[in-house]
Specification:
- The protein is mainly alpha-helical.
- The chain folds into 2 domains: 65 residues; 206 residues, Orthogonal Bundle (MetI-like fold).
- It contains 12 helices and no strands.
- Helix 5 runs parallel beside helix 8 and helix 7 packs across helix 8.
- The longest helix is centred in the first third of the chain and has 43 residues.
- The mean pLDDT is 78.
Length: 277
């Protein structure tokens, strides 16, 4: 091949690369334009008053400084409030752990590439995950309060079901992305499905599953603080009571506790994530 032919080939490749790059930029611009157009159309259809939105920051700042601050932390130190805070933490831990214990096998059975049976077990596992995810946690809490009555039991069950839906879907997607050569090699040795899971599947998805589990606990704790609004146990019941009687300083005290506990849980999750990885 002569130097002229090599130069011509390089020029052709370069021109093709530039053409592909221009096409990608055009598509990005079109998608951005369509997204902005949809946002503008949505604002118009929903009749969102932009001027009122822009003017709300002043009254919002006034409410925070005059009605919410300073938070009444003495109210939080009352024994019944401390008991409700402890109840909230217990609900979140038990609900998330219980949900993960169900979500993990559901993720394995609901992953198309490794499920033991694609005709029966796979659709059943996927149905469990979809149904658990389709109904919001607060709606689960309302339904379960109607069945089991007021208290943390209904809230714990609601957290279990929401964890199954959230963690089960993400975990199943991680299983479907694994390298099947290792699984096939272990299966070729005559291993059963349980052995294949523990030696071929779990080592590949463990880092992702740990991250999903820790985030599920973060999400579950935040969710547990609001379940009391519908009578499903925890500190949400007292938060709702204080807001309903316009005791915003005491309500802000409870919100401050929630923020502090979320920060603490985030620090704990960060520590565990580094230890387990």
């Amino acid at each position: 091949m002569t130097s002229d032919e090599m130069t011509s080939g390089i020029d052709t490749i370069h021109e093709s690369y530039l053409a592909d790059r221009r096409i990608r930029w055009i598509w990005k611009f079109v998608i951005l334009l369509m997204t902005l157009s949809f946002v503008v159309w949505t604002v118009d259809v929903l009749n969102i008053p932009i001027e009122r939105v822009l003017r709300m920051f002043g009254p919002l700042a006034t409410m925070v400084t005059e009605r919410l601050m300073p938070p009444d932390l003495y109210y939080v130190m009352e024994p019944r409030i401390l008991t409700s805070i402890l109840e909230t933490i217990e609900m979140s831990v038990l609900g998330v752990v219980g949900g993960l214990l169900i979500a993990m096998p559901m993720a394995w059975l609901g992953a198309w590439n490794v499920t033991p049976n694609r005709n029966f077990i796979y659709p059943m596992a996927r149905t469990v995950i979809v149904v658990a995810r389709a109904i919001p946690t607060l709606m689960w809490a309302i339904l379960l309060v109607a069945i089991f009555g007021f208290g943390p039991f209904a809230g714990t069950l609601a957290l279990i079901k929401s964890t199954i839906g959230f963690a089960g879907k993400l975990m199943a997607e991680q299983v479907e992305a694994i390298d099947m050569e290792r699984v096939d090699a272990i299966r070729a040795t005559g291993a059963n499905e349980i052995q294949i899971f523990f030696y071929g599947i779990l080592p590949q998805v463990k880092p992702a599953w740990v991250g999903i589990s820790l985030y599920s606990w973060d999400s579950g704790f935040r969710g547990s603080t609001i379940l009391g609004f519908v009578g499903a146990g925890g500190m949400g019941l007292y938060l709702r009571a204080q807001i309903s009687v316009m005791e915003y300083h005491t309500a802000m005290g409870l919100i401050t506790v929630v923020i502090g506990l979320v920060i603490l849980s985030e620090a704990l999750s960060h520590h565990l994530r580094h230890r387990l990885y």
